[in-house]
Amino acid sequence: MDNAFDLNAVVVFVRIVESGSLSAAARSMKMPKTTVSKRLASLEESLGVALIARTTRKLSVTEAGRAYFAHCQESLRLLEQARAEVTAARSHPSGHLKITAPVDIAHTLLPRVIHAFVGRHPGVRVEVLVANRLVDLVGEGVDLAIRAGPMRDSGMVGRKLIELTANVYASHAYLRRCKAPLQPKDLSSVEFIGYGGANGPFHMVKGRSSVKVDVNPTLVVDDFETIKELVVLGTGAGWLPDFVAKTAGASIVPAVRGWRAKSVGQVHFLYAKQRHPSANVKAFIDVAMEVVPLFLKGELAMPGGDERNLG
Amino acid sequence: MDNAFDLNAVVVFVRIVESGSLSAAARSMKMPKTTVSKRLASLEESLGVALIARTTRKLSVTEAGRAYFAHCQESLRLLEQARAEVTAARSHPSGHLKITAPVDIAHTLLPRVIHAFVGRHPGVRVEVLVANRLVDLVGEGVDLAIRAGPMRDSGMVGRKLIELTANVYASHAYLRRCKAPLQPKDLSSVEFIGYGGANGPFHMVKGRSSVKVDVNPTLVVDDFETIKELVVLGTGAGWLPDFVAKTAGASIVPAVRGWRAKSVGQVHFLYAKQRHPSANVKAFIDVAMEVVPLFLKGELAMPGGDERNLG
DNA sequence: ATGCATTGTCCATGGGTGTGCACAGTGAAA
DNA sequence: TTTCACTGTGCACACCCATGGACAATGCAT
Question: How long is the CA A112 to C1' C16 vector, in angstroms?
Answer without folding.
Answer: 58
